[in-house]
């Protein structure tokens, strides 16, 4: 046996190894000193293998992330240029159910739907050809915003198989969130989006994101950024859910809008209101001026004042607006009422009862059929459950 101990070993290309070279003849055994000289060798091998493993893992992760970013960027690009058909005018439906502001409360929404006999005890659609119109403000104040959005989307799919439909309008709180105004968001409302960071970070550095929004997002606290990325114009949540939400919906002789319409809005054009808003939500255009100001379709409260007199300026504006559309009645949410009620000789119905737990109001819905208009209520306080 030939052994060289303590001498630096060299490879064929002249590199020095960090351990002595040990040569062993066949059939011989190593003594204790020779065995101990092998420890640095095995230590070097283990270290090299660990470094190699980490390098390969880093390469694999980098490649995977690059693929994900590529796919997400492609999806984002498609989202920016695809068209979304917004229907403003529907033919008259046999039965219409109107539900007010939900504000992130899935249980109250499902209770309202059960009251209206359009879903079963498991939340599945049983309403046949009924049209359900939810009047906006799904976001803010509650912890179940994503669950409500997903549920309404799934319920609409179920309803469409039976000839029904579930439509959620755009409310002022959706507009606020798209503009990154998060003053009414709960802590859970932020964390629910943070858990989806990989989904929501797509497109942040894309040209499709307006520079102003990039700067706004950079300045936000970290816990707000995921929500901002999701809800900005062209963001994945905005495109998926809100770009399909009309501001105004006319069904037969009924017009539905979150807050209210006036003559100026009708002159602007109801289709134009919906289309210009959709283009903004998709990130393809600036926010339309028609959505700005306290008299916009998602902000006005002129038809929600208590004790509106028939000869009031508000009622005159309402009747003139409805005649111009033309429509028989306007159904609005936005301003909480103790109960669903009508004003201006039943030409406007106010259906926001503050049914979410954020307000603790009564769970009521409005039913419209060929027989007329009816307020649906639970028969007992115990039945008015969330």
Automatic annotation (TrEMBL):
InterPro entries: Calcineurin-like_PHP, Metallo-depent_PP-like
Transmembrane segments: none
SUPFAM superfamilies noted in UniProt: Metallo-dependent phosphatases (SSF56300)
Residue ranges constituting the Calcineurin-like phosphoesterase domain according to the UniProt record: 95-337
Any one Gene Ontology molecular-function term assigned to this protein's record: hydrolase activity
Gene3D superfamilies according to UniProt: 3.60.21.10
Name listed for the protein in its UniProt record: Calcineurin-like phosphoesterase domain-containing protein
Organism: Galdieria partita
């Amino acid at each position: 046996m030939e052994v060289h101990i303590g001498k630096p070993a060299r490879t064929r290309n002249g590199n020095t190894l960090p351990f002595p070279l040990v040569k062993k003849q066949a059939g011989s055994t190593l003594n204790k000193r020779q065995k101990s000289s092998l420890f640095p060798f095995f230590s070097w091998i283990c270290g090299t293998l660990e470094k190699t493993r980490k390098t390969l893992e880093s390469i694999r992760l980098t490649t995977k992330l690059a693929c994900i970013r590529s796919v997400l960027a492609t999806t984002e690009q498609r989202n920016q240029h695809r068209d979304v058909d917004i229907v403003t005018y529907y033919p008259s439906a046999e039965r219409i159910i109107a539900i007010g502001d939900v504000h992130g409360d899935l249980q109250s929404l499902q209770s309202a739907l059960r009251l209206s006999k359009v879903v079963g005890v498991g939340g599945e659609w049983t309403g046949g050809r009924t049209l359900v119109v939810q009047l906006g403000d799904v976001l803010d104040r509650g912890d179940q915003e994503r669950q409500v959005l997903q549920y309404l989307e799934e319920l609409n799919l179920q309803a469409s198989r039976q000839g029904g439909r579930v439509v959620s309008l755009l409310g002022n709180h959706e507009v606020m969130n798209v503009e990154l105004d998060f003053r009414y968001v709960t802590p859970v409302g932020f964390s629910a989006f943070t858990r989806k960071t990989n989904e929501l970070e797509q497109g942040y550095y894309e040209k499709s994101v307006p520079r102003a929004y990039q700067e706004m997002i950079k300045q936000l606290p970290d816990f707000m950024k995921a929500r901002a990325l999701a809800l900005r114009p062209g963001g994945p949540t905005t495109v998926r859910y809100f770009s399909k939400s009309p501001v105004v919906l006319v069904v037969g002789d009924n017009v539905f809008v979150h807050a209210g319409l006036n003559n100026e809005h009708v002159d602007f054009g109801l289709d134009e209101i919906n289309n210009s808003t959709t283009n903004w939500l998709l990130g393809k255009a600036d926010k339309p001026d028609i959505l700005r100001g306290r008299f916009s379709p998602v902000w006005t409260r002129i038809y929600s004042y208590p004790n509106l007199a028939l000869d009031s300026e508000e009622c005159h504006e309402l009747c003139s607006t409805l005649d111009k559309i033309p429509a028989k009645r306007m159904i609005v949410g936005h301003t909480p009422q103790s109960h669903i009620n009508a004003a201006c000789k039943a030409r406007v119905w106010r259906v926001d009862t503050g049914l979410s737990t954020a307000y603790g109001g009564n769970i009521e819905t409005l039913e419209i059929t060929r027989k007329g208009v009816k307020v649906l209520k639970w028969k007992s306080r115990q039945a008015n459950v969330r």
